[in-house]
């Protein structure tokens, strides 16, 4: 239950966070545990997931959270462990600055993890939430889903799709008690970020810690905001992109040229 103006309590809430062996997912899961929720965390990385679960007081369920079978298995495991699911955080993500050279399997994997994972989880959860009074669906998208990631074609496309799907869910089901949030950060100090090439542009924008992204999510939940923008300048860039698209594209191309120099 979230009461406007009061710190949120999630006591009794049953939460699942995917891709939560570390980074943003682990910080979000820890935030829910600290606020009284019962949390199942998931990741492909079994050992790291187990360690994180012990550290933060969550239950680990390792496996794929993107394909239809993996999502169904995770929903079933969380139902069995928690007795139901009130909040799903679709956080697992892949990809980075790869352009036209990314092959078909690479595009497919990025699409499955960054977009279809969310669709599959919503297909299982939203119909039952609509019947039982509501639920919360959180998508860790990216600023790349509102703007674009220099060098990252598949990442930008699939994160735009993730934002679009989250928007569609919110506008279709808000009146049935379903709350949706799209988290859209720029650089965050995680394994995924540290392994990315061309981080300089994002480093210049300010790199946040995962806990700051989690705090921004809880603030957005308290104020009932759909977009979670831990880097506030993303809102300004989003406005510029919409109102002066050619100026915005020319500016981004300059940054691209600088990154090639
Ligand atoms: N770090 C950043 O700068 C940044 C910025 C914007 C958005 N994001 C998004 O934040 C989310 C979390 O990433 P992170 O930065 O914390 O990096 P991370 O590498 O710490 O976390 C991503 C996790 O997802 C897991 N994963 C990948 N495919 C999976 C699958 N099919 N099933 C289950 N788990 C899977 C990985 O094993 C990994 O532990 C991602 O969606 C990422 O795109 C990150």
Tag the structure with descriptive keywords.
10 helices; single chain; Rossmann fold; binds nicotinamide-adenine-dinucleotide; alpha/beta; 53% helix
Can you give a write-up of this model?
The chain is α/β, with parallel strands linked by helices and 261 residues long. The chain has one domain: Rossmann fold, CATH 3.40.50. It is built from 10 helices and 7 strands. The protein has a 7-stranded parallel sheet, with helices on both faces. Helix 3 (68-82) runs parallel beside helix 4 (104-132) and helix 4 (104-132) packs parallel to helix 5. The radius of gyration is 18 Å and the shape is globular. The chain starts with 13 loop residues before the first strand and ends with a helix. It binds nicotinamide-adenine-dinucleotide. Nicotinamide-adenine-dinucleotide binds at residues 18-19, 21-25, 42-45, 64-66, 91-94, 113, 140, 142, 185, 187-188, 190-193. The site of nicotinamide-adenine-dinucleotide (NAD) has 28 residues, from helix 1, strand 2 and helix 6.
What share of residues is helical? 40-55%
The molecules bound to the chains, other than polymers, are:
nicotinamide-adenine-dinucleotide
Helix and strand pattern = EHEHEHEHEHEHHHEHH
Number of helix segments?
Answer: 10
CATH architecture: 3-Layer(aba) Sandwich
Structural class: alpha/beta
| Backbone shape | globular
CATH class: Alpha Beta
Alpha carbon gap, first and last residue? 52 Å
InterPro entries: NAD(P)-bd_dom_sf, Sc_DH/Rdtase_CS, SDR_fam
Pfam family, one: adh_short
Protein name: Short-subunit dehydrogenase
Family: Belongs to the short-chain dehydrogenases/reductases (SDR) family.
């Amino acid at each position: 239950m979230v009461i406007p103006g009061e710190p949120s309590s999630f006591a009794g809430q049953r939460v699942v966070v995917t891709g939560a062996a570390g980074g943003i997912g682990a910080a979000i899961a820890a935030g829910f545990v600290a606020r009284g929720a019962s949390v199942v965390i998931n990741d492909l990385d079994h050992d790291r997931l187990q360690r994180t679960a012990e550290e933060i007081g969550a239950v680990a369920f390792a496996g794929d959270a993107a394909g239809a079978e993996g999502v169904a298995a995770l929903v079933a495991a969380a139902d069995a462990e928690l007795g139901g699911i009130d909040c799903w955080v679709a956080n697992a993500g892949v990809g980075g600055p790869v352009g036209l050279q990314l092959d078909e399997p690479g595009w497919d994997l990025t699409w499955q993890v960054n977009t279809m994972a969310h669709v599959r989880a919503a297909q299982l959860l939203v119909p039952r939430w609509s019947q039982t009074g509501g639920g919360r669906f959180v998508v860790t998208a990216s600023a790349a889903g509102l703007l674009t990631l220099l060098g990252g074609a598949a990442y930008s496309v699939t994160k735009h799709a993730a934002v679009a799907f989250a928007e569609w869910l919110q506008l279709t089901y808000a009146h049935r008690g379903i709350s949706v949030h799209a988290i859209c950060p720029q650089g965050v100090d995680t394994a995924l970020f540290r392994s990315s090439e061309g981080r300089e542009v994002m480093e210049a924008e300010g790199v946040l810690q995962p806990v700051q992204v989690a705090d921004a999510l809880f603030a957005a939940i308290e104020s009932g905001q759909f977009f979670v923008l831990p880097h506030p300048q993303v809102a300004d860039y989003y406005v510029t992109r919409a109102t002066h698209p050619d100026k915005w594209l020319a500016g981004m191309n300059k940054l691209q040229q600088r990154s090639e120099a």
